[in-house]
Specification:
Number of helices: 10
Order of helices and strands: EEEHEEHEHHHHEHEHEEHH
CATH class of one domain: Alpha Beta
CATH topology of one domain: Rossmann fold
Radius of gyration: 19 Å
Pfam families: ABC_tran, oligo_HPY
Protein name: ABC-type glutathione transport system ATPase component
Strand order of the largest sheet: 6-7-8-3-9-10
Family: Belongs to the ABC transporter superfamily.
Keywords: ATP-binding, Nucleotide-binding, Transport
Shape: globular
Structural class: alpha/beta
CATH superfamily of one domain: P-loop containing nucleotide triphosphate hydrolases
Largest sheet: 6 strands, mixed
InterPro entries: AAA+_ATPase (IPR003593), ABC_transp_ATP-bind (IPR050319), ABC_transporter-like_ATP-bd (IPR003439), ABC_transporter-like_CS (IPR017871), Oligopep_ABC_C (IPR013563), P-loop_NTPase (IPR027417)
Length: 257
Amino acid sequence: MLKTDRVSKEFRGRRGTPPVLAVRDASIAAEPGRFVAIVGESGSGKSTLARILLDLIPASGGSVTIDGQDLARMGRGDRMRFRRTVQAVLQDPAGSLNPRKRVEQAIGEVVRLHGIAKGRSAVHAAVVEALSLVGMDPPERYLDRFPHELSGGQRQRVLIARAIVLRPRIIVADEAVSALDASVKAGVLRVMADLKERLDVGYVFITHDLPVVRKVADYVYVMKSGEIVEEGETDEVFAAPSHPYTRTLLAAALEPV
């Protein structure tokens, strides 16, 4: 289980301005096989919390643990294992993929770095399997393509394949489908749901898209100004939101939820 316990993050202000508290006392939990969503407006602290969960930035207070082990106290070997266990899928696939590397190179280098497979044929087989898992069939059609030769949805599937090739237990997806067209978004979400069922992957899904949350999430946290103001099973929160901010978000949704 990946947990934060009263995590806070403070950023220094510019000269002459006070510090900015981007996250305040946030406690969340994610586990394999469970789709957890964090929702809120832009600037609510969602992405900062995601970066803390991924150990990309340190928390200013509180703790982040994986199966009870504190990230702040991990040595190099434990951190490598953590990075295999918790992977990221971000909003901008074009910016997350090296434009000079073909699909097989982009995924294969992750396999080699983490020692998932050794030898050219074993690495190739791992890449092919990962692409197949995300619905890029036949995989051989995509292996030699560069990112600019793929559609936005295909690039996002490559990012998911690059994450899933390590067999993570949890994927932190920060606005992973927000830039996609509705039909493409639906396809990527089906891939994520399928991986949850087939591989028992858990998700921390960061988004402002409430209709998507209602369709895919098991549990939802609502963030406002860096704080978790409401949480609960998705159906319960959508049916009877207790916080005024949650009611405002639901009322402002662009389509019925």
